């Protein structure tokens, strides 16, 4: 993963490339080259690219890693207050709790809409097969976190023990 110093270095090199392209563009106009207007486009593109790379240096590259969390897949996301993740069918109570915390951290975004509710609800589910050829989704738990506070210390994690017992018997 890129770090802050990597982004600054990349911004510096992109800035140098932009200035070099601008110098070649000016030279093209002075010497009446046929490609001078194409060079204006290339210079403009490099200006936008350099500005975008610089903007990335303003936002830190951080990702919280919760120990004990297992990989999950995002199944459903309204972009507002409801999401569903899929977890493997063989998961323990501690792994599920850690995975819900990881999902709450990963799925937090300033851009989520909270019309009637100021909480993001993330539900964890798995798929079990009670009979051959039959698949049944099974919700194992959920976490509710704040839509406005990045470091929400008041997350409400709810794990459905009866559902976890079903997959423990199935294993």
Number of strands: 5
Percent helix, as a range, is 40-55%
Principal-axes geometry comes out as elongated
Give start-end ranges of low-pLDDT stretches: none
Radius of gyration, in Å, reads 25 Å
| Binned strand content | 15-25%
Average of pLDDT: 86
Major sheet: arrangement of strands: 1-2-3-4-5
Write the layout of secondary structure elements.
Layout: H1 4-30, H2 36-58, E1 73-77, E2 82-86, H3 93-106, E3 119-128, E4 136-146, E5 156-159, H4 161-170
Helix pairs in contact: 1-2
Folded structure, characterized:
This protein has a five-stranded mixed beta sheet with strand order 1-2-3-4-5. The protein is elongated. It contains four helices and five strands, in the order H-H-E-E-H-E-E-E-H. The two termini are 36 Å apart. By secondary structure, the chain is α+β, with helices and mostly antiparallel strands. The model has no long low-confidence stretch (mean pLDDT 86). The chain has two domains: 4-58; 73-170, no CATH class. A hairpin with a 7-residue loop joins strand 3 and strand 4. The protein has helices spanning 4-30, 36-58, 93-106, 161-170, and strands at 73-77, 82-86, 119-128, 136-146, 156-159.
């Amino acid at each position: 993963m890129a770090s802050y110093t990597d982004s600054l270095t990349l911004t510096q090199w992109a800035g140098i490339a932009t200035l070099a392209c601008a110098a070649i563009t000016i030279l093209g106009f002075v010497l009446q080259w046929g490609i001078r207007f194409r060079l204006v486009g290339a210079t403009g593109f490099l200006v936008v690219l350099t500005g975008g790379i610089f903007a990335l240096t303003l936002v830190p590259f951080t990702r919280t890693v919760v120990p004990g969390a297992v990989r999950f897949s995002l199944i459903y996301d309204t972009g507002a207050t409801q999401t569903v993740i899929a977890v493997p069918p063989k998961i323990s109570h501690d792994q599920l709790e850690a995975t819900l915390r990881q999902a709450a951290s990963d799925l937090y975004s300033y851009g989520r809409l909270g019309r009637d509710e100021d909480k993001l609800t993330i539900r964890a589910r798995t798929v079990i097969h009670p009979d051959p050829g039959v698949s049944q989704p099974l919700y194992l738990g959920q976490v509710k976190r704040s839509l406005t506070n990045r470091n929400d210390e008041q997350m409400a994690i709810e794990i459905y023990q009866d559902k976890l017992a079903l997959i423990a018997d199935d294993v």
